[in-house]
């Protein structure tokens, strides 16, 4: 059975770069790794609805914190069997966002903390009711919200397929989300966490040695 490693953080934190660096380090060591990213906009109808709602379609769906959270959760539920199959055949499965993203962004939208009702509801929905695979480790790639925002703006200008959605361009929301993420990591929400400084160069070898491979 492989290890399920989740990378969490704000848009622009560098999650994709971190996933690529860890994968390359594992491959160089002769280990196998599978990767996935949520939401799966091109693979799951629930994620498609999320993308459309973020562009203002489907009436007031985008303004419903719980409605959007259910769609995010159903996307992951639909991927659960695939994740389990990957864990059976790979040493490591790396995920770009997972359940904690739903908890952090929803709580931030409602101006709640990690100890609020929304995070508890997400636990009941995705972890208890849906029984999603449990991560061995959750990595918080932490950067200041203004740094993440600047990176996301640059990416939007230079990559035609990386347009920011309404949540990603909401700087106060991103700042609140960063606070909730920090609280989740500090409390060890669901499974163990490690915090990585995303504002500096990451030592992928050390990260793999100390945390990814256990």
UniProtKB/TrEMBL annotation:
InterPro entries, alphabetized: P-loop_NTPase, Thymidylate_kin-like_dom, Thymidylate_kinase
Region (Disordered): 150-170
Broad enzyme group: transferase
Key words of the record: ATP-binding, Kinase, Nucleotide biosynthesis, Nucleotide-binding, Transferase
MF (Gene Ontology): ATP binding; dTMP kinase activity
Gene3D superfamilies: P-loop containing nucleotide triphosphate hydrolases (3.40.50.300)
Pfam families: Thymidylate_kin
GO BP, sorted A to Z: dTDP biosynthetic process; dTTP biosynthetic process; dUDP biosynthetic process
Domain Thymidylate kinase-like: 7-190
Keyword Methyltransferase: no
Keyword Isomerase: no
Catalytic activity, EC: 2.7.4.9
Substrates-to-products reaction catalysed: dTMP + ATP = dTDP + ADP
Superkingdom assignment: Bacteria
GO cellular component: cytosol
Bias (Basic and acidic residues) ranges: 151-169
Recorded family membership: Belongs to the thymidylate kinase family.
Main function: Phosphorylation of dTMP to form dTDP in both de novo and salvage pathways of dTTP synthesis.
NCBIfam families, A to Z: PRK07933.1
Protein name: Thymidylate kinase
Gene name of the encoded protein: tmk
